[in-house]
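pls design
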């Protein structure tokens, strides 16, 4: 997987807005399991509004419209990210899987009441 730099602007599948990548390897915990998304992004050109970002993976990208800045610091960061991917105990997130888990947790809470 080629990891895109911060500042890259992409068109996501089934999404009308352009999205700018603002973070990478976003981890979250659901119940006992830890997951990660490849990227977090904000709507371009608005930027981050409140705390709203969109989490997505490489396969959700339809087109790269602009690629962010790359220098030696970015190259070092890519090495760190690739090492993290190889060693993390987090599972790679899938939006459909996350939705299913959230729905299941909500059902469990309702049944407990």
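designed seq:
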């Amino acid at each position: 997987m080629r990891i895109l730099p911060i500042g890259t602007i992409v068109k996501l599948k089934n999404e009308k807005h352009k999205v700018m990548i603002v973070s990478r390897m976003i981890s979250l915990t659901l119940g006992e399991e830890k997951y990660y998304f490849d990227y977090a992004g904000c709507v371009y050109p608005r930027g981050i509004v409140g705390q709203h970002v969109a989490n997505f993976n490489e396969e959700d990208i339809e087109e790269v419209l602009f690629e962010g800045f790359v220098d030696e610091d970015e190259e070092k960061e890519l090495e760190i990210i690739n090492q993290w991917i190889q060693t993390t105990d987090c599972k790679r997130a899938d939006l459909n899987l996350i939705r299913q888990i959230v729905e299941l947790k909500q059902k469990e809470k309702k049944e407990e009441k």
